[in-house]
Amino acid sequence: MTKASCVLDYAITSGNLNLKILEMELFKDKRSKSLILIAHCIINQNAKSDGTASYGGTITEVMELLNSTGLGIVQMPCPELHCLGLDRSDKLGSTRPVIEENSRIRNEMKQAKSLEKINILIQSLVYQIEEYLKNGFEIKGIIGINRSPSCGVETTSKENKEITGQGIFIKELQKVLAKKDIQIPFAGIKTFEPEEALSTIKKMIGLNELSLQ
Ligand code: SF4
Fold this sequence. Notes:
Strand content: 15-25%
Mean pLDDT: 90
Number of domains: 1
Structural class: alpha/beta
Strand order of the largest sheet: 4-3-5-8
Largest sheet: 4 strands, parallel
Bound molecules: iron/sulfur cluster
Number of helices: 7
Shape: globular
């Protein structure tokens, strides 16, 4: 008996054995079939721009919460690492105020070379999203990082200010999903505001404050 549940029908026609698969139900193992997509640096602070990592590895509070839910966690790519490298193409980045450096990074991320790479990353991500949806999985939401020039959902950085709006990567991702009529909730958190982050994520995945205590 294979892991997948199969119902097979055998028919003998003209001396040949024809094997017909009438029904095949996939993914009946232990997986929850429920997922959340999160910004790369929630799992890996090593990808952050110089001077902005708040944890050694993961944002521990967020990962503890997510691990307790049984959701699968899809780590989205870090668009700035892919487009600009770990030093974001300027080794002096950390010598500037964060918002100023973020605004410089935003301008770099808008260049044609960066947009080309972002599109490739988004194609790969959207392919995964479509595969999960096609196979009946639930995607609870997509968590970005507010204030980020790339992954901001409610706020981003522009002209040396934190402003309302999306980062370049999130904006492009939302555009592609909208074109395909795929509706997934988005929310942003900030690395240095773990309590607010937990409350945002609980709301997204439908956990009230009491259910986890
Ligand atoms: S916010 Fe986005 S671009 Fe910035 S480090 Fe995290 S994943 Fe990378």
